[in-house]
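hey m, so remember when u said the tokens were messed up on ur end? i reran from scratch. heres the input so u can diff it against urs
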Amino acid sequence: MIRMIEGLPDNVVAVSGVGEVSSADYTSTLDPAIDAALEKYDKIRLLYVLGEEFTGYGDGAAWEDVKLGVTTFNSYERMAIVTDSESVRRTIKAFGWLIPGDVQVFHLDGIVAATVWITD
């Protein structure tokens, strides 16, 4: 599931992946949150935490992620991905340069630094 993280500025969409993230999680939680932020701001920031409770992506979730990235491609000022998953870290480092805006990957013990960076 995708869980919203509260308490950050309105231009920051902050979420945490818990357990298995499904395609339905994108359509029911993340997509509406990003759409709402983009109604207020031309550029938004995304904080995505994949912590110890994250077990992976379910069927269709990767496709939803691609669709979201394509439809909101130029909408991000900054993205902070927080994870200790080496496969996720490698993927972001390999393809993060394709994303307009600043992208940084943080380890889980760097959640405070990621939050400061995304809101600064």
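this time it looks ok to me. The beta strands are 2-4, 12-21, 44-57, 76-83, 102-106. if urs says something different then somethings off w ur setup not the seq
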